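subagent[fold] <- orchestrator: predict structure for attached chain, return tokens only, no commentary.
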Amino acid sequence: MNSRTPYEQSYYPPVPTKLTKFFRTNVIWQFFRFVVLNIKMLRMVRKH
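subagent[fold] -> orchestrator:
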């Protein structure tokens, strides 16, 4: 059985990359994702 030691690297949460931070904070990208999500919801609602 493997023993676990405290404060190993696997206990820390992953750190977002610069690209991830950019997409999370970019308003244009957020607006694009908002439009895409709304189109998906409209398509789903129209089916019923």
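orchestrator: received. Logging for downstream: The chain has a mean pLDDT of 90. Residues 27-47 form the longest helix (21 residues).
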